[in-house]
């Protein structure tokens, strides 16, 4: 997660999808940004989801979360202590983005839905440097994340820019425990607005897994919603921040502060390492992504808004 900066990129045409897999040719024209009618893809709770109660105000119930000891000895996570947020590779050192008191709550019961949808990412860049980030399932084999998680821009380091080499995906990680093991991906997606222009309005991407692990973990829905609907909503974010013990999952929520045609702004506490986290709302008990968390700010943090062209690419990448 990085501090927001002004981009000089042109405002349209940046949602043409691109892949690090040369044989894939994906050409789509950009759709209208403004929301004409809501549209959404449904979530899935996966196998044996456990309890996933929510509060009436559209937030998660996180009281009395305890680790599932029976799962802890199955897989052991790599040591990711001391590694920096992937956002620093493209933007340099980031600033603290916990505003005032730290309201984040640690989630330890990570082996149940919805927490197992969130994934700790251990990223190897093209120059073999190592970084951390966050992703979230949107389908059986697809995770959403920030564009700068899968494609590094303007690092100033020889051999570092471009598609990352690989990402170790760890669903529902809880410190050293991996309740669903880990899986390495080398197949990534983003859009030209990010890979060519480095425009923060297009800072989103996807990780394609070689298996359908998402059928077990479940996934979040996602949707396109009007400005008025979003600003009346409560936003939720869970991810793997670098200022907490390595590989621990933390959650916070707050009412959406504001939106524009490309971004969603919120006073939800986050920190570097949460680049790529889902910004989601709860509708009738279902979790629906509304943005991809990517940037910090002095008073609000922000994510790339899921508008029509973003939604269309997500549906394609999910297939």
Main sheet?
8 strands, antiparallel
Instruction: Specify Rg, calculated over alpha carbons.
Output: 18 Å
Count of helical regions: 7
Please identify the structural class as seen in this structure: mainly beta
Q: Secondary-structure element order, as H and E?
A: EEEHHEEEEHEEEEEHEHEHEEEEEEH
**The number of domains:** 1
By CATH, the superfamily comes out as Trypsin-like serine proteases
Level-1 CATH class name: Mainly Beta
Report the CATH topology name: Thrombin, subunit H
Topology, number of strands: 20
Shape: globular
In the predicted model, the low-confidence regions spanning at least 5 consecutive residues are 3-12, 24-32, 64-73
What proportion of the residues form beta strands (DSSP E)?
25-35%
SSE topology:
Blueprint (H helix, E strand, L loop, with lengths): L1 E2 L13 E3 L19 E3 L27 H4 L14 H5 L13 E3 L10 E7 L5 E8 L4 E4 L1 H4 E2 L9 E2 L2 E6 L11 E3 L1 E5 H4 L9 E4 L5 H4 L3 E4 L2 H5 L2 E6 L9 E11 L3 E4 L11 E6 L2 E11 L4 E5 L2 H11 L1
Parallel strand pairs: 1-19, 14-19
Antiparallel strand pairs: 2-12, 3-14, 4-16, 5-6, 5-10, 6-7, 7-13, 8-9, 10-11, 12-13, 15-16, 15-18, 16-17, 17-20, 18-19, 19-20
